[in-house]
What we know:
Order of helices and strands: EHEEHE
Mean pLDDT: 97
Oligomer: single chain
Low-confidence stretches: none
Largest sheet: 4 strands, antiparallel
Number of strands: 4
Distance between the termini: 22 Å
Strand content: 35-45%
Shape: globular
Radius of gyration: 11 Å
Structural class: alpha+beta
Amino acid sequence: MVLQKIVFGVENLHCAGCVTSVQNALLEVSGVKTAKIDLPSKKATVEFDSQKCSKTQIAKAVSETGKIAVL
């Protein structure tokens, strides 16, 4: 297991509902251990196993919620 931590911006994040949907989508990605979304700064902090998932998969999970990951 190789844990990595990334912090990236999330565009189109407007409310607590947005935060919940993005966080849930990230936690569904195999290999993601933690996902924290900060609404005021519009930033996501994700800890993941880089042997199980990639930054591309993380960005795709965000985009599937209608938001944009700015890696």
